[in-house]
Amino acid sequence: MRTLIAVSLVALMTVSSVADEPAKKKRDKGGNSIVKRLMTSLEAVSLTEDQTATIKAAASKFEATSKELREAGLTADVRKKVMTATKEARESGAKGKEVAAKVKESLTSEEAALIAKMDAANKTLRTSIAAVLTPEQLEAIPEKARRQFQPRQGGKAGAEKGKGKGKGKGKGKKKDQA
């Protein structure tokens, strides 16, 4: 009988302690989610102290810029407006620059300027991190995260990428040898 009572008390205590815990984890309001994701992706790489210091400096500069932009009016509503416009543009079949143009049309000039400043700060953060990493460290980062640190191909760089391939290269040699 005493064993049954002891087991019931232990069960009651565990149930009450579990009930005291919140049902859902609240979203962490501290820090910037972009910086957190980037830092998480860098956990796979062993960084030197100098690299860590440089990355933390770039992250704190980005967070300061991000805070200034939020105070200037870059609210969750503006970001939601961008997401909605992007989704609608993609659903209508637009791609690349067409999507960007449609998103810009949906924003006021002030909102578009804030978004542009945030994009520039984000790009600066990513390029400053990529500049610190060695090619071996970049390879050690998972593919999905690695793409964040690589510049996008496009414009002249994309056009010159395939230069010298194809046209006339190697054609007819097999026939001549046969």
Order of helices and strands: HHHHHHHHHH
Helical/strand content category: mainly alpha
Spatial shape: globular
Low-confidence residue ranges? 6-12, 14-21, 23-28, 155-168
The rounded Rg comes to: 26 Å
The average pLDDT is 76
Instruction: Give the helix proportion (percent range).
Output: over 70%
Multimeric state of these chains? single chain
**Percent range for β-strand residues:** under 5%
Q: What is the tally of helical segments? A: 10
How does the major sheet shape up?
none
- Kindly, what is the distance between the CA atoms of the first and last residues, rounded to a whole number of angstroms? 97 Å
What is the tally of beta strands?
0
Describe the structure.
This protein has 178 residues and is mainly alpha-helical. The chain has a domain at 32-150. The protein has helices at residues 2-20, 33-41, 49-72, 76-91, 97-106, 109-132, 135-140, 143-149, 155-161, 173-177. Helix 3 (49-72) packs antiparallel against helix 6 (109-132) and helix 4 (76-91) packs across helix 5 (97-106). Residues 6-12, 14-21, 23-28 and 155-168 have low confidence and may be disordered.
Question: What topology does this entry show?
Answer:
Elements: H1 2-20, H2 33-41, H3 49-72, H4 76-91, H5 97-106, H6 109-132, H7 135-140, H8 143-149, H9 155-161, H10 173-177
Helix pairs in contact: 3-6, 4-5
